[in-house]
Amino acid sequence: MESNREPGSGSPQRRRVVIVGGGMAGTRLAQQLVMGAGEVPLDVTVIGEEPHPAYNRVLLAEVLAGRYAPEVIALPAPAAGAPAGAGVRRLTGVRVVRVDRPTAEVLCDDGRRVPYDALVLATGSNPVLPPLRGLFEPDARDLHALPDGVHAFRTMDDCLALGAAVRPGTRAVVIGGGLLGVSAARALAQRGAQVVLAHQGEHLMERQLDPGASGLLRRHMAALGVEIHTECRVRGLRTRVAGPGGGGRPVRTVQAVELADGYALEAELVVLACGVRPRVGLARAAGLEVAHGIVVDDELRTSDPRVFAIGDCAEHNGIVYGLVGPAHEQADVLAQLLSPTPPLPETRGLRPPAPHRGSAPDPAPQSPEGLNFRYTGTRTLTRLTLTSTSGSLDLAAFGPPPPAPPRNMGTPPPSPPPGLRPGPRSSIAGGAEFSLHGHPHPHPPDAHFNVRLPRPRRLRHPHPRPRRRRHPPHRRHPQHVPQSRGPRRPPPRRHPSRRSRHRRRARPCLGGR
């Protein structure tokens, strides 16, 4: 593989690395790139859609609760402490609309074209807007125009809008009991709002916590004054027209949240925390391989050898993490791969998306020590800290929760309880066969049995009576008249037949025999 040095020149060529997305993953990558710059200088460009500087998204709930100011959670600038020759150019409030892979350029919404030698997609994710009645107008031109009082909880703008709308005593309804929903409900409760949390699942944070830990979290949330409803499906929103708005369209304000069982929760403020979805529109339009997220291999490369993806938008081995820890680890690995020491992969022409996931187009570059930098996955860690007047609660979930057993199965004990004996027709969970014998005997509370008794068989008579054969209606006796046709008519007079002439008439008996 050829290096990126100009022929006949003693000075190396500056490498252009463009990072689309100014969130936590993109900022971490820019910091690692400028700190690891060596003899070969780097031109790092970070294009962020938000007008705010990079901030810690994990602490948005603390800003909403009023504990921190927005500038407190800002991340340090990547250029601080950078060596000479390494610089970072940050474009805020600029949105990338297209990736031109043949010319290796990205096109922004302000008309500028930014060339790249390596492109990193760190576009993050968007909040999921559920299909609720009354959320959008049927004939609305802007499909993202929400009624007044309805907010998502994902960005700094969402946090500032919620903080400006909440007041002590405000009736707020949080839809979704995941990590974002619990954080938003806790922050609103600390601001003095009357919070109701509606969750469709069986328990809170079901993706990170088991039922026991979720019950502990629910009791702590109830101590904060949050009213929690689980296994509750939201059907729609009730809105009213508050007055004329811009462009001649009326302004709608939320009034209540309708549930599927017919109840309505009065609300002045509604928070949509129904999860997130990776932003893959830019990669899909560029022809990259996309599943639930942007498919990457162990080198965090997409189907194009010069395009990489990290953070919430990347899918590695079929997993989209959506957490800060995996995003930072992916940024660290990619910074080693894009460091100036190993040469960047040369363009070998566009190729179609890989037929299967995890395919590496080119061998990974190696460090000077001979180490092979690869991303093999991250063990997820979810942390949540809740404070109240009664005390604080710290939750930490390591890895995915264990799958819950089926409802009709249980953990078999080592031996059957008294009153059960081996039998051929009944079974217990786990493959051991038992049947009930005598009266039922109580078993210890830690043993969960699922005994299936044999189905009783219907007894039959040893000499069954033959069934009377019924003729079809067209072959029945002519005197048969259904009762639905009215009263039965007298039978017609029978004519003497051959059998009646030969039949012997009965003589009358006159006294005695």
UniProtKB/TrEMBL annotation:
<protein>
    <submittedName>
        <fullName>FAD-dependent oxidoreductase</fullName>
    </submittedName>
</protein>
<dbReference type="InterPro" id="IPR023753">
    <property type="entry name" value="FAD/NAD-binding_dom"/>
</dbReference>
<feature type="region of interest" description="Disordered">
    <location>
        <begin position="388"/>
        <end position="513"/>
    </location>
</feature>
<feature type="compositionally biased region" description="Basic residues">
    <location>
        <begin position="486"/>
        <end position="507"/>
    </location>
</feature>
<feature type="compositionally biased region" description="Basic residues">
    <location>
        <begin position="454"/>
        <end position="479"/>
    </location>
</feature>
<feature type="region of interest" description="Disordered">
    <location>
        <begin position="339"/>
        <end position="373"/>
    </location>
</feature>
<keyword id="KW-0285">Flavoprotein</keyword>
<dbReference type="InterPro" id="IPR050260">
    <property type="entry name" value="FAD-bd_OxRdtase"/>
</dbReference>
<keyword id="KW-0274">FAD</keyword>
<feature type="compositionally biased region" description="Pro residues">
    <location>
        <begin position="399"/>
        <end position="421"/>
    </location>
</feature>
<dbReference type="Pfam" id="PF07992">
    <property type="entry name" value="Pyr_redox_2"/>
</dbReference>
<feature type="domain" description="FAD/NAD(P)-binding">
    <location>
        <begin position="16"/>
        <end position="318"/>
    </location>
</feature>
